[in-house]
Amino acid sequence: MDSSQTLLQGKSRDDSSDYHKLSGILDYEIKDNEICLNFKHASLAIKFLTADIFRVVMAHSGQKINYKSTDAVIEHNLTYDDFIFTEKDSELIIKTDKLVLKLKKENFLLQVFNQQGELIHQDHSQYALGWKKQKVRAWKSFEQAQRFYGLGEKTGWLDKKGRLYEMWNHDTFLPHVSDTDPLYQSIPFLIAFNPQNSYGIYFDNSYKSFFDLGSEGQDYFSFWAEGGDLDYYFVNGPSLKEVVSKYSQITGTMPLPPKWSLGYHQSRYSYYPQAEVEQLLKTFRDKEIPCDAFHFDIHYMDQYKIYTWDEDRFPDPEAMFAEMEENGIKAVTIIDPGVKTDPEYKLYQQGMENDYFCKYLDGRVFIDKVWPGSCAFPDFTQSKVRDWWAGLQKDYTDLGVKGIWNDMNEPAAFNKTDTMDVEVMHQNDGDAGTHRRFHNLYGFLEDKATFEGLKESLNNERPFVLTRAGFAGIQRYSAVWTGDNRSFWDHIKLAMPMLMNMGLSGITFCGTDVGGFTGNSNGELLTRWTQMGAFVPFFRNHCEVRAISQEPWSFGEKYEKIIKKYIELRYKFITHIYNLFYQASQTGIPLMRPLIMEFPNDRECQNLSDQFMVGDSVLVAPVYQPDKDKRMLYLPEGKWIDYWTKEVYQGGKHLIVDAPLEKMPIFIKAGSILPLNDKLNYIGEKEIECLEMNIFLNEENNLGNYQLYDDDGLSYNYENGVYNITEFKYQYTDNQIIFNIDRKEQNYQQEFKDYKMIFNNLNKDPLNIYVDGNQLSEFSYSDNRLEFKVPVVINKITIELS
Length: 802
Ligand code: GLC
Prior knowledge:
The protein is α+β, with helices and mostly antiparallel strands. It is 18% helix and 32% strand. The chain has a 9-stranded parallel β-sheet with strand order 33-32-30-27-23-22-21-35-34. Helix 10 links the parallel strand 34 (513-514) and strand 35 (539-541). The radius of gyration is 27 Å and the shape is globular. The N and C termini lie far apart (67 Å). The site of alpha-D-glucopyranose (GLC) has 10 residues, from loops. Residues 44-212 form the Glycoside hydrolase family 31 N-terminal domain. Residues 255-580 form the Glycoside hydrolase family 31 TIM barrel domain.
């Protein structure tokens, strides 16, 4: 079947055939880093940010090209004009240091080649770019072998191919099943993967948009929006890691979070009164179950009015927070954007007096029902409103609150459309538009205001913000949780590809409600969910108001013991996890990764949706079905070491491994180095004096390294250089291991005093060990495991082998 037949087949939700399309190029102009092309009813700018990131903006129907970006795009000064331009009879050719772009003159078509002349990407031959009234649309060719990742918080498998996805932030309380769409976040960033030439497309348009990844036609994919401009960025890889990293040059990386926020969080809708919170605190500490944060859901408020306290339930929040803080637990309070329309309520008065709320064009304030009843909604597109909101954070931080959980910020409203009327206006500092344009940015802008307010009021401490709604770039301000999941086994399974794709879409700090939000959890489900949660970036147990309790001890000792073990495991891995957060803050590469990111040439990994990597060395295979004591999993090529038994496995195949309730399969890639630390009840409980450096040796002639970042985990002092970077490297030859420690940056007074060196999978007897040339007398060696302690100040260890 040819492509035209495919395109015309049936009526899709947005029929391609009714669009106006770009005709032939009439003329063009080259200005600095861009090429501007004119067509009969349209114009197009191709603007280079780097040699392999370029932006395409279309104007149509007499409009001028609009270079204004959404708030997702960071201020950058990326510009590249070092290209060579050639005109041929039928095409214009632009050659950068990395790519060759060909623009067909007659029936406009953009093609992108790599330097070897391989075609990486091209517009679909029949349509390319087009518009239909306010709608703008792009059609791209694709090969069936290509895989699609990204798109943020979406249901389904890792590979998003074959379905139509909608970008429209939505409070989706109904069960999230395999094809539920949309959910709460809109991240219009798509990755087209193929092992040699992956690329990404970021569609910078905040209107309701769609990505059809082959559901309408077999040989093209397409994206469109109901308004705004066709404005997208092409981000070349060629590797998946490069695509993700380069995308972060456009929408930013997440800043380093406070380390405590990487610990375990306990939540429910809602813990109250104060005595219950105090009891909860006592139970965690009595049972020595690690915990770093409690979340306060809506019942802490007076009639659900934000920034108020129900004084009967919480007579003295300040004293309660002080006690929590003393015990190492941080308070995170929920905030919804709706402001109750109560004339005696300070916030409502302020909002009305200063014109802070969203209004219709005729001046009526938009009012709808949320938890407090009738509410008005702050217009976060205005900087004066964001400043007001930012200032409110101090009311809470003065009491001792350390984090804000922004919920219902799609915004949710209990009317038929579940959200704000799309005709409501947003003032946007003089560039006003309707809610159609700003809906997907509403939560994002609230989070921005919250983050900036917290940053200001927490005096040099890093804020923690958690959000439900968001748009591309949300990582700059907030962690994201995936909203109202259910206590279903299927929701452990669903969470994995969703979180992996969120990570690939810039959102490193993400997680699901462990145990499930709606419905009753049970011991086995909570145990399995906690096992996975321990390796997911954001680790919070949360459930809804009607659900039975699901704290770690709620289902009896058998489960409690295992749940505790896995929460402890999270803390054992915390140095490594924090280090991966640091890497994400530098490169945009997430810590929770699909295997395909580490093993791009392994076909088995292309749609592997039920196991994931934590960094580049730890493979986690959660159990997501009841009554299982085995799990099938896939180990890519190479040797792998079972974290629990230290047994060595040959990869490149599927395995069925034991996974009784107390065991979630975890494998470490042979050759890697992994720092692990002692048990902690909370971050900062005590100094980690001894850091375990676990070396998982591969066979001989093997090299390994690990770069460890370290700072105080709380302040912004790192911005002034107060941090350490230490590089650990080893070389394993047939008769020795040489291990080097290189302190590359050393400006922070490090807490570790010693390293406990553990060489796993060493199958030759160690004869002599020298530490900076001095012979070490104390070490132990058994079961292929060599252990000894050295002070952190040393530089070199030599182990002579038999
Ligand atoms: C929403 C949130 C949920 C919260 C509840 C009450 O459903 O998604 O996490 O507990 O509102 O505030």
